[in-house]
Specification:
Number of strands: 5
CATH class: Alpha Beta
Radius of gyration: 14 Å
Helix content: 40-55%
Mean pLDDT: 94
Strand content: 5-15%
CATH architecture: 3-Layer(aba) Sandwich
Number of helices: 7
Shape: globular
Number of domains: 1
Order of helices and strands: EHHEHHEHHEEH
Structural class: alpha/beta
CATH superfamily: 5'-nuclease
């Protein structure tokens, strides 16, 4: 079973129903729920998702949705080692660098799923859009 890190944009596409991307995000989350792949996120992805969703809904509503999500998706642990690696990297987007180094150093992630694949050009693990990754599962 493939293990993937889901980037914030994948979750936001689903929650905010951002067409046409939300359909692929929904299918990807369903595959995770059906145990066809294993999904991870970082605490930063949880925080970013909460922050953006909170603009559209109440605290309680957002918290309930995130709690449901966390029944299917595992949160990776974070520590100083990944922060230093991200700071020392050639990534131009610090947040992407953090996600990447958490994925790499966890030794649990086979690929990163994001709509911003261009931001991960230096990745040593595969990076897919949700649509591309779903095609690998077929």
């Amino acid at each position: 079973m493939k293990s993937v890190l889901l980037d914030t944009d994948v979750l936001l596409d689903f929650y905010l129903d951002r067409k046409p991307f939300s359909d692929d995000s929904l299918q990807l989350l369903l595959k995770c729920e059906q145990k066809q792949c294993r999904a991870f996120i970082t605490p930063l992805i949880v925080a970013n998702t909460y922050y953006i969703l909170r603009r559209h809904a109440t605290h309680n509503f957002v918290v309930e949705r995130l709690q449901i999500l966390l029944n299917t998706i595992t949160v990776l642990t974070m520590d100083q080692k990944q922060v230093f690696a991200a700071l020392d990297s050639k990534f131009t987007d610090f947040e992407d660098a953090l996600q990447y180094f958490y994925a790499i150093q966890s030794n649990k992630v086979d690929a990163i799923i994001t709509r911003n694949t261009k931001d991960f050009k230096q990745s040593k693990i595969p990076v897919f859009s949700p649509q591309e990754f779903l095609a690998t599962l077929s």
